[in-house]
Amino acid sequence: MAITRLAGHQTCNKSLPNVFLTNRLYLTRRSYASEQSSRGGSQNLPQTSSSASKKSTRTKVKYSDLPGIYVPPSGVPSAPLKSWFADGRPEEQAPIDIAAKPARKRRSIKNKPLSDTIDDDESQTPPKAPKVSKASKPTTFLSRQILSNLKRFPHCLLLTRVGQFYESYFDQAVEISHLLNIKLTSKKWNGDRVAMCGFPILHIDKHLKTLVQQEKRFVALCEEFPVQTSPKLNVKEFERRIARIVTPGTLIDESFLNPLENNYLLAISPVTEPADCATLPEVGLAWIDVSTGEFFSKQCKLENVPDELARLAPREIVLEDSLCKKANHPIFSAFTEGSFLISYTTPPDLAADHTDLAPNSVEPASPSPHLATLESLHTADKGIVLLQLNDSQHLSAPPAEPTPAAIRESTAVNLLTKYLQDNLLEHMPRLDAPLHESAHDRMQIDLHTIQGLEIRESGLEGSSKGSLLSVIKRTTTSGGARLLARWLCSPSTSTTEINSRQSLVTFFRSRLHFRMDIINILNEVDDVGRLCQRFLLGRADFGDLAAIRTTINFWASLKNICAQEMATEQIESPGNHRFGEWNSMDALLHRLTNLDELSERISTAIVLDSNSGIEANDISEANEDLDIQDDPQTMTPVPEKEDSRKGFINPQFSEKLANLNDILQKLEIEKEKMESDLRLKYDAPSLTLRSASGQGMFIHLSRSKRDKKKLDLDPEFYSIGESLSTKSYIYRDWSQLGASIAETSITITQAEKEVFEQLSLEVIEHARELRQNAQVIDELDVAISFAVLADEMKFVRPELSEDGCYNIINGRHPSVEMGLFSSGRQFTPNSVSMDPSSNLHIITGPNMAGKSTLLRQTAVIAILAQVGSCVPADYAHISIVDKLFSRIGAKDDLFRDRSTFMVEMLETADILRRATEKSLVIMDEVGRGTTVKDGLAIAFAALHHLATINKSRCLFATHFHELAEMVGNNNNTCGSGSFHNVRFYCSDVEDAGDGHFTYSYRVRPGINRDSHGLKVARLAGIPSSAMDVAANTLSWLRENGSSNIQDNYNNFLQSTVNPIL
């Protein structure tokens, strides 16, 4: 029999095969007759009966009666075990009387709640909302950490990493379990039960999507990091700290992040006092996509903030915390047009005073090394210069006085950076200076126009299906899709830039095969913008390194293909004038930086073929058949991103790695030889040499009944576990050899980690060049997509000018045309011709006759032309549009107590206040939401303002044909006097006989004084009896007028209702 004496009073967390510790004084053992007969029993123990061979018995003896030595199967007594304490028994510990049995205390549950009597292992249902007692204090290290983090981040939902799980405790567990629809349980701490819930770490992205993206909650991720401890204790300890706070605007590389859209975090910096907004309306904006590193800043007016919000669609907005208590601040009125998440942060000390920003004035202990400081300010046309605090080179002297708008922009940049630092914490990247956007370089599209034209989203509950973006998108890369979306919401106003883009589109339209070759390359290119950000945030792995290398190689292939194509064209057509078309392509490729050295460096360092390297999987192979189990909380490697690294470092990358791998290879050969020799010597074909965390090195038999006979007789093999079909032993020689293999493998892993970190630093050093090349590829992708779109839908290249004209021949609306084509119908094109002498068109006609489509397609064609695309028309000549406004359709806003007519008037007022001579305005049925006289008066006032003050190019669709006389109708073609620049156009219906009609959809010069509303009503299916009353009523009103109804009421009833009765 094997008897083990346990010294000390602590409880052992592992169990030996035949010995189980119950308390510090008593020991329960199992005795077997087979062992008694072969080895004999101890004189100090009672003899077992002969029936023990069939059934084991349990005998309780006093601790003092047990022998003080352990006799292994070899018969040689072993030395007694050392004290459980590393440095011996503590001095303050009182001696234990091992001879006396301690008095057994009765548990009293008279005054305790029912929950205190439930053990952790019981399956009873926990309370729905357990709370920790106010009087109790945390005693365990984990509970103290959790309570401390909850106190530090009260605005966040705390998820604490515990082994393979993320867990939540206390009241937050109740809330999180409800939000995630997971089971709520409880945990016993300090004698009280606290609420608890958790989920595996593999589900973190799934639940972050629910908490952050859908519920708009902040989540603090508390990760665990290993702490170096003495190997003698055989205990793994972890330090737990908040590594990151996940918010909707600070997503990095989560799987639910849409690769085709930007995830912007926007900081807005207005003046803090509401009374100063009238005199200082300038607002600073700064926004960043943390997943790509794209960082921008801008100055704008307070009234233009809603338009910027509609253009950027930020996931989160950051304001100064001083605005939190100023609900009457005008900035909050900009958020009423959408659903935005508002966050607050304390501005950094650097932004507290903008009057003294000299480099020498910066304190050495700056609040953050990531914050930008305003060193030089220029005009809005040239942009601003934002430098880092730790830059070694500064301007010799700052300007005398920065503008208020530049100060607000700098404050927004610093506010955004401070918020990122507070939430990204250990993942905070180094930020470059933001790219300044000037309001003069981009077409301004207001909020209502982006929604009315359905540029990004259609009216189908925010779906992208049917939107302009979804119809024209032919991009290959995700970066190209994001760039196209940005361009559509902010087209360029630079004629040079637009012509350069269109020249590139024309270049690819004329070279179909060359275009297809480039598309094949783009299909293999990764999203380098987000890859670079993963390296900057410290979340990259071997796959990211391989993707960087592969993408650089594809860039080189792109250059080679272009050079071959150019050489081929020169050979085939030496004097061909098309050779000049390469100028636009050369200008784009010239911006590509050569990064072949970085690619070669990565290629020589990493190996992705798992069959070409040395593997030591046996060292980490777990034995699931052993009886001994490890603590699951210590089995997970940390930090988390280590698990995602796929691939390994080339063993020949450095001399150090080569030597280590040679040593490991020799040890592996020695292991194989030892395993083969043991199999032959002990006649055990199923014998394998294995290791597992917690058990160390051991010998495993998969068919123990057949192969264990000789091993059991050899004293060098000590059994540590046995099941029905397997058995495991400890063997000293394998333990020593396996320890050498494990130590060498750890050294190699550490060396490979150093190489990986070195390569990551090299990628970070080239991050700017990588992003610049990625921008070039995105522009190339968008240009090719425009070429594909133009060939598919027969678009033409527009002519751009500054003459104030807008001439379109047979223009079409791409979204409507695509919808009609899918249903087997054909789109009817229309032409529009406007110049400074005829820049305002009044369009009349029946409902559903194409007026609104004409208005929308006019605006869409202007957008497509200024993003660099071809346009859906036979011919297009467009003067640059600086601002685009629309008043199309309206619906009531009950939440903000706005009627349909009020919404319509707000949009009209915004247009009349902001439109310029270079603007394009489309207005549909202004004044329709009130009485005829009031609506007519408002429509005429708006028309007069546009014609005489704004002088914008405008299409004005209306059912008030009386407006023609009010602007001085001249032969139903144009206005007169102050309205000499007004022209009349109309649409009509065609009678098909038998009470049927068709829409012509073709706009012609003239005025249509009949809206044909009854025909549309009949087409909608209104009952015939109601339609007869409507026809009689319309006939009576045309003969007598609406003012004579009261005087001739009986006549009115007899003429309208009585004939039907």
Automatic annotation (TrEMBL):
<keyword id="KW-0067">ATP-binding</keyword>
<feature type="region of interest" description="Disordered">
    <location>
        <begin position="95"/>
        <end position="137"/>
    </location>
</feature>
<feature type="region of interest" description="Disordered">
    <location>
        <begin position="32"/>
        <end position="61"/>
    </location>
</feature>
<dbReference type="Pfam" id="PF00488">
    <property type="entry name" value="MutS_V"/>
</dbReference>
<dbReference type="InterPro" id="IPR036678">
    <property type="entry name" value="MutS_con_dom_sf"/>
</dbReference>
<feature type="domain" description="DNA mismatch repair proteins mutS family">
    <location>
        <begin position="919"/>
        <end position="935"/>
    </location>
</feature>
<keyword id="KW-0238">DNA-binding</keyword>
<dbReference type="InterPro" id="IPR000432">
    <property type="entry name" value="DNA_mismatch_repair_MutS_C"/>
</dbReference>
<dbReference type="InterPro" id="IPR007695">
    <property type="entry name" value="DNA_mismatch_repair_MutS-lik_N"/>
</dbReference>
<keyword id="KW-0547">Nucleotide-binding</keyword>
<keyword id="KW-0234">DNA repair</keyword>
<feature type="coiled-coil region">
    <location>
        <begin position="650"/>
        <end position="684"/>
    </location>
</feature>
<comment type="similarity">
    <text>Belongs to the DNA mismatch repair MutS family.</text>
</comment>
<dbReference type="InterPro" id="IPR036187">
    <property type="entry name" value="DNA_mismatch_repair_MutS_sf"/>
</dbReference>
<dbReference type="GO" id="GO:0005524">
    <property type="term" value="F:ATP binding"/>
</dbReference>
<feature type="compositionally biased region" description="Polar residues">
    <location>
        <begin position="32"/>
        <end position="47"/>
    </location>
</feature>
<dbReference type="GO" id="GO:0030983">
    <property type="term" value="F:mismatched DNA binding"/>
</dbReference>
<dbReference type="GO" id="GO:0043504">
    <property type="term" value="P:mitochondrial DNA repair"/>
</dbReference>
<dbReference type="Pfam" id="PF05192">
    <property type="entry name" value="MutS_III"/>
</dbReference>
<dbReference type="InterPro" id="IPR007696">
    <property type="entry name" value="DNA_mismatch_repair_MutS_core"/>
</dbReference>
<dbReference type="GO" id="GO:0005739">
    <property type="term" value="C:mitochondrion"/>
</dbReference>
<dbReference type="InterPro" id="IPR017261">
    <property type="entry name" value="DNA_mismatch_repair_MutS/MSH"/>
</dbReference>
<dbReference type="InterPro" id="IPR045076">
    <property type="entry name" value="MutS"/>
</dbReference>
<dbReference type="Pfam" id="PF05188">
    <property type="entry name" value="MutS_II"/>
</dbReference>
<dbReference type="GO" id="GO:0005634">
    <property type="term" value="C:nucleus"/>
</dbReference>
<dbReference type="GO" id="GO:0140664">
    <property type="term" value="F:ATP-dependent DNA damage sensor activity"/>
</dbReference>
<dbReference type="GO" id="GO:0006298">
    <property type="term" value="P:mismatch repair"/>
</dbReference>
<dbReference type="InterPro" id="IPR027417">
    <property type="entry name" value="P-loop_NTPase"/>
</dbReference>
<protein>
    <recommendedName>
        <fullName>DNA mismatch repair proteins mutS family domain-containing protein</fullName>
    </recommendedName>
</protein>
<dbReference type="InterPro" id="IPR016151">
    <property type="entry name" value="DNA_mismatch_repair_MutS_N"/>
</dbReference>
<keyword id="KW-0175">Coiled coil</keyword>
<keyword id="KW-0227">DNA damage</keyword>
<dbReference type="InterPro" id="IPR007860">
    <property type="entry name" value="DNA_mmatch_repair_MutS_con_dom"/>
</dbReference>
<dbReference type="Pfam" id="PF01624">
    <property type="entry name" value="MutS_I"/>
</dbReference>
